[in-house]
Amino acid sequence: MLICCFFKVKEKMIIDRSKQQKNLLEMLQEKNEYISAPCNGNGICGKCIVRYKSGATEPTKQDREFLSEKQLEQGYRLACQSYPTEEYKVEIPELEETIEVLSQWENQRTEEILKNTAEGTAEKTENALYGICIDIGTTTLAALLVNLETEADCQTAVSVNHQRAYGSDVLSRISASNSGKKWEIQRCIRQDLQKLIRELLQKEKITEQQIQRIVIAGNTTMCHLLRGFSCETLGVAPFLPVDLSWMEGSAADFLGMKELDTKVVILPGISAFVGADIMAGIAKMNMHRSEGYHLLLDIGTNGEMVLGNCRHMYVTSTSAGPAFEGGNISCGMASIPGVISHVFMEETGKAGFQVIGETDGENKKQQAIGICGTGMIDLVYELREHQMIDEHGTYSDLYFDTGYELAEKVKFTQNDIRELQMAKAAIRAGVDILVKKAGITFDEVDNCYLAGGFGTKIDIKKAAGIGLIPKELEMKTVPVGNTVLAGTKEVLLGRISKDELEKIQTMADVINLAEENDYHLHVFCDETRPLLQFLSKRQIKILVLKRKNKSVII
Predict the structure, then answer these.
(1) Which CATH code fits 99-266?
(2) Which single residue of 15, 58, 90, 269 has CA 20 to 30 Å from 154?
(3) Strand 302-308's sheet: what is its strand order?
(4) Does residue 519 carry a pLDDT above 90?
């Protein structure tokens, strides 16, 4: 029997490795120990790093690709590539995801809560009754405690979605679920939600008996994984969900919390790729009650969008890829402290930037460790404005080979620009096609709502400047924050009914972008023409086919 110990915050654990075919990542997952693995253990992301204290395995090709010789000598390895054959000790480094999650939203909500409390609207009464709103995001989780009597926001709680151990995107998690890990993944999300709920109770100093209702929303895959539904038909054409309906049950059945005698509601979805999270956004923005056309955009790896009014809605999802979240970018990272979030040109002609976590009066620019999606948008805009790249996104000779250096550890390469272009083009193509399907012009769109943390932080002028947002909508675009929590609150308080949500389902016309020739024309011709000039016809055909496949599988 092989015995393994690993160290994490000075806690030891014994791992019994009886099955030789399992790697260290799988063993940790079975023991419910979280370690980031955005690629689901395929050895292509380099995130599942551990450090052997003894019994280190021989470095693999993937280890050498992501780790320096010094790190290898110190015992660092990728857990997904490590198959120990003897007794060993391993430690898990501190995880960057735990540093900051949705902090901007949380701080904003906290300020509102404190203001409400000062005004007396959130005054707690003895035996007051509460409800909880939950947003199950692919990357992050957020929960909001609401006083049902005063309708005031009372407490917030946020967390990393530890299902990231099974992949960063929904396709990876569908694959993991289908490979026999369905119940492990369900247990993982249940434990995360249980922790959030208990945190809310502790913060407000209330009991489980005071919680009357819980309303949950997330994308279709997240809701399926929470319920333990099969994902066999989600990842393959024709992409059929098990259940998109309004679901009601107990906290014991839905969350595994027998001590909580509370009704739980999961909002209905629209399609395999447009879920209850978008439904909550529609509800919050009252799009289904509006005479005029409104556009709702949730920009990320899975770009979900809806255009509509009280008569009809057009919805779709586009696979933008991971660029906006730092994936496939040489120095790309998620929005964590130390990452460049905004870029501007100084009088010297050199790019200046803002770093997440940077405080006034302190210069932390030397500590920049990467760049996130909003920073990339700013940078590309500034590069174009100052003619460092041409209208097609091609660097001038000075930067073509080396890229543009923002900081000592942060460069933005020609390939990075292409990745951002592809992501931008996928989103923009989806928007253009929805407007075309509706038979209207951009001038007839009353408002464009940017949902989510990314939409809140984005510079709208620069986003329009690079074509992510149509120029005609620049002055009509409004960041609206976390519409998932806001929409679930509307349902929690009875302002939006089950019947209304079910009516939205019937009103929605789901557009499959894979079947739209205009979509691929946008993505491959308009945005990557200079790149394609260096490719053969056969290579171009392969790229188009890949994009067609990715456009419907998210």
Answers:
(1) 3.30.420.480
(2) 269
(3) 477-481, 445-451, 293-298, 302-308, 313-319, 508-510
(4) no
Q: What fold characterizes domain 279-322+419-550?
A: Nucleotidyltransferase; domain 5 (3.30.420)
pLDDT in tens, 201-253: 999 999 999 999 999 999 999 999 999 999 999 988 888 999 999 999 999 99
Please indicate whether the domains covering 2-94 and 279-322+419-550 agree at the CATH topology level: no
Reported residue count of the chain is: 554
273: Cβ contacts below 8 Å, ≥ 6 apart? 219, 220, 239, 302, 304, 316, 317, 552, 554
Annotated domain spans of the chain: 2-94, 99-266, 279-322+419-550, 331-412
DSSP designation for 328: T
Q: For the domain 2-94, what is the CATH superfamily, name and number? A: Beta-grasp domain (3.10.20.30)
Residues 461 and 467 sit within 8 Å (Cβ to Cβ): no
Q: What are phi and psi of 310, to 5 degrees?
A: -70, -10
> What kind and span of H or E run contains 480?
strand 477-481
Give the contacts of 54 (CB within 8 A, at least 6 positions apart): 87, 88, 89
Amino acid found at 21 = Q
